[in-house]
Amino acid sequence: MSESDNETVIDDQARCGGPQREAARRVEELRADVDTIDAALVAMLAERFRVTRRIGLLKARAGFASADLQREAAQVEALRVKAEEYGLDPDMAESYLHLVADAAKRDHERLACQVNSR
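Structure for Chorismate mutase, as requested:
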């Protein structure tokens, strides 16, 4: 059985007025909350990268490496602890940190190339 065979179209359920209408309406409300949270997360990520870009420029000008493995390890541990406090899967929190830290390091390497080519 494919995933589409099990698909429930919430919008259809909400419009039809059947026995699942209330559940569908509530799902739509909660999805709106998720959309708001996702937009806020993107805004926070953009701000995070504005700050890490400034860090990358400072590191490049000072001749520092793009990676700081001790800091990264400490951040992974701190985020795992924070995730547990919030009831979030620590592995997911760690995956998030690796994703953004790797992107920041790539950005730092590009900045270093630009600074060194001047």
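The chain has one domain: 3-116.
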